[in-house]
Amino acid sequence: MSTYDRKIISVIGSGLIGCSWTMVFLSGGYRVKIYDKQPGQAAKAVQNVRLQIEELQQNQMLRGNLNSVEQLALLSSHESLSEALEGAFFVQECVFEDLAVKQAVFHELEGCAGKDVIFSSSTSCLLPSSVFSEVQNRMRCVVCHPVNPPYFVRLVELVPHPETLPVVMDSTFTLMTEIGQAPVRLMKEIDGFALNRIQYAIIAESWRLVKDGVISVQDIDLVMSEGLGMRYAFNGPLETMHLNAPDDLPYGLCFYCGQN
């Protein structure tokens, strides 16, 4: 990858998620080149990002070690896809959640980007095997699913294509950690990924309890906001189980040493 500038990231798509990813990458000191197929949209996105970053600095909420002027100096908009990709080592796709559109985007990207550039999709539910089906070199493809808004909610789900190389997962994990996100690795693709599957399970049981007349809508929300939500803000469900009954867990997993 020596032919690429390890500090340049291309963001494809300039909507809410595209702007959010741009701000996160800028906070990590990366140069960001934003592209949108619609004429003038990338330039509008730059202005939007500028206003948000300046406001964050005024409110003392700006992320990273650089001030707003220094971060914004790293940002540029591009009408040409080839110009937006020039020198980049990582591409974050942020177009809307339409499989055919994403497939077309990555097909076009492969025609312009070098073979060592990592392709990342922001999809929240589409399987990598579907999103990257038009890509010939699928070994460099990965899903980086952010939680909205990514600037404040730092979790990122890394979901591999069945052909994704381990080094691509490792490099992406390192990048996400470096820019201040909290990446988690899925070992394989699955419908809904991890976050949405857990979220849907909670929603489904909540609806079931309300439908069966067990609890009111208002009270089921209190169960989360004044109970489980407060606990899970600090400890995950498995760690909570471990702390409550460390000697009774059948798998004997140690959360502190990472060994069985």
From TrEMBL:
Q: Report the Gene3D superfamilies cross-referenced here.
A: N-(1-d-carboxylethyl)-l-norvaline Dehydrogenase, domain 2, NAD(P)-binding Rossmann-like Domain
InterPro entries to which the protein is assigned, alphabetical: 3-OHacyl-CoA_DH, 3-OHacyl-CoA_DH_CS, 3-OHacyl-CoA_DH_NAD-bd, 3HC_DH_C, 6-PGluconate_DH-like_C_sf, 6PGD_dom2, NAD(P)-bd_dom_sf
Query: Which residue positions hold the site described Important for catalytic activity?
Result: 145
* Residue intervals of the 3-hydroxyacyl-CoA dehydrogenase NAD binding domain: 9-189
Membrane-crossing ranges are none
Q: Give the GO molecular function terms.
A: L-gulonate 3-dehydrogenase activity; NAD+ binding
- The kind of enzyme this is, by top-level EC class, is oxidoreductase
Q: Which GO terms describe its cellular component?
A: cytoplasm
Annotated protein name in UniProt: L-gulonate 3-dehydrogenase
**What is the top-level taxon of the source organism?**
Eukaryota
Assembly and oligomerization = Homodimer.
Pfam families recorded for this chain? 3HCDH, 3HCDH_N
Enzyme nomenclature, EC number: 1.1.1.45
The UniProt keywords, alphabetically, are:
Cytoplasm, NAD, Oxidoreductase, Phosphoprotein
Biological process terms in GO annotation: fatty acid metabolic process
Q: What does the similarity note say?
A: Belongs to the 3-hydroxyacyl-CoA dehydrogenase family.
Query: Where does the UniProt annotation locate this protein?
Result: Cytoplasm
Domain 3-hydroxyacyl-CoA dehydrogenase C-terminal as annotated: residue spans: 192-245
- Its source organism is Paramormyrops kingsleyae
Q: Does the keyword NADP apply?
A: no
